[in-house]
Amino acid sequence: MKISLPTHPLRTARDLDPLLEAIGDARIVLLGEASHGTSEYYTWRAALSKRLIQEKGFQFIAVEGDWPDCFEVNAAIKQEEATYGTAAKLLSTFNRWPTWMWGNWEIAALVDWLHQHNKQLPHEQRVGFYGLDVYSLWESLQEILHYVEKQGDGAVQAAHRAFQCFEPYGDDPQEYAHAVAFVSDDCEDEVTDMLRALRKQVASQQTNGLLDREQKFNAEQNALVAVNAERYYRAMIKGGSASWNVRDQHMMETLTRLLDLHGPDSKAIIWEHNTHIGDARYTDMRREDMVNVGQLTREAYGRNKVFAVGFGSYQGSVVAGRKWGAAPETMTAPEATRGSWENLLHEQLQGENALLFSHELRDNDALRQPIGHRAIGVVYRPEFERFGNYVPSVIPERYDAFLFLDQTQALHPLPTHQDEHTPPDLYPWNY
C-alpha cells in the first residue's frame, strides 16, 4: 500500500512541542502502548507526562496496574524523604505476574523524578500515581480489614463477612470464579454490603485536607475493587465480552472518582495499552459489544476534553511470556506484516520515527477503512503474530495522535521475586 502521509519528526523531547499544542486544554490525556514490554513506549510516555505535569498542571498519572500496589507508590513519592530506600526497592511491590509491567527500570526512573518534583511542592499539590485495574481482590480485602480494624466500629463486621466469604478459595480468584460461575452461592452481596458500610463510615468522619481525603478514598477504592473484581471473575469464566467490559468500566469509574477527588479543574494522564485507550468504536471490538476507556472517556467528558495518543513500532524486541504465567523472556518482535499500519509507516519513513496527527489524516480516503494495527499482550508468540496480533482500526478516529517508533527495544525488568499467585488467564484479551 503506497500512501503519502503528513508526519512530524520525533527525535527528542522538544519534538513533542506540536503534541503539547494539540493537547491544548484537554482534561484527560490517554497514552497508549502497542505492548507491555517495550522500553521506548515507557520512556516517551514519561517524557510527555513530565511536560504535561510541568507545563499544563496535570495532577496525577493513573496506570493499568493494581490499586494497592500503585497507592503504595503514590504515598511514597509524596513523602519529604525517600524512606522507601530506592525506587527499585519500592517497585518490588509489583510482585504478581506480569511483574515487569510496572517493576522495571524505566518506571524506577519516573518514580525518582516524581519524588524530586513533588519535594518542591506543597503537600496539597503533589502529583499522584494510581492504579486503575481490577485484579487485586485479596490484596484489597486485606487493606480494607487493616483500615476498618484501625478505625473501630462501622464497617468492621461487614468487612469480616466479606473476607470470610472468600476464605474457602484461598488466594486463588480463579478457584472462586470456577466455583460460583454457574450457581447462586457467591460473595456478591457480602462485598456490596462492605462497600455500602465503608462509604457510610467514611461519610460520617471529619476530613482534614487532601491527604486525609486520600486515605479515606483509598479505603473506599479497595472496597470498590473488591465489588468489581468479584463481578469480573464470575463474568470471565462465562466467556464473551462481559469480563472485558466489567474491567474497563471499573477503570473508567476509578478515573472519574480520582478526577472528583482532585477537584473540578483536575487533569489526568492515563497509561494503558492501545486496546484500552484507543476508542473501541473504531476497531473490531465494536462487533463484540466491547467498550473501553478511550470510548467511555470521550462519551463522558466530550471529545474536546479527551486526547488519545496511540503508540506503535515496526520491529525490535519485547518482554512477554510465551504462555500465561510463564517466565518473562526478551523476544524478537518481527517486521510488521505487509499492509499493516506499522508497515505503511516504515515504508514511508524509511526507518525514521514520527509523530502524526489525526486531523491531518482524516482526508485520506484509504485510512477511512480499517487497517491492521499491531497489538502485543503480556502473552506473545512471535511466530504466530500475523494470525492474531493485528486489530483492524480506523486510525484517525481511534486516536487523536500517534507516535511511531520504527525500531524498539525490550523493557528492562527489575529482578523482582514473583509471588506464587497469578491472576486468571485473560485469553484472548491479554492486554
Automatic annotation (TrEMBL):
GO biological process per UniProt: response to antibiotic
Pfam hit, one: Erythro_esteras
Cross-referenced InterPro entries: Emycin_Estase, Hydrolase/PRTase-associated, UCP036794_erythomycin
Matches recorded under PANTHER family: ESTERASE, PUTATIVE (AFU_ORTHOLOGUE AFUA_1G05850)-RELATED (PTHR31299)
Protein name: Erythromycin esterase homolog
